[in-house]
Amino acid sequence: xxxxxxxxxxxxxxxxxxxxxxxxxxxxxxxxxxxxxxxxxxxxxxxxxxxxxxxxxxxxxxxxxxxxxxxxxxxxxxxxxxxxxxxxxxxxxxxxxxxxxxxxxxxxxxxxx
Length: 113
What we know:
Layout (H helix, E strand, L loop, with lengths): L1 E2 L4 E2 L3 E2 L3 E9 L3 E8 L5 E8 L3 H20 L10 E7 L2 E7 L14
Antiparallel strand pairs: 1-2, 3-4, 4-5, 5-6, 6-8, 7-8
């Protein structure tokens, strides 16, 4: 099974540490996969793989810069902004490694009857 843009497959290991476990979704500009960080005791992470073109690459770098600024301004995570762990390049694609949000509950939308 190929997981979108960078032709990733379940079981592939990126950067010698991220083992792909599943696809989480894809869009026009990027795809996201779930992975285990083998260098961090198999911590689950989400990896956003940005489309391999100059405009998207630059936009991805800007996104990473903004997230690093937000994360550094809130080291105790009181504002609950997603954590960007690191970034790397794979086959020309910019990859952003995020905390996994798998176990966080999504609030139900309340409607009045």
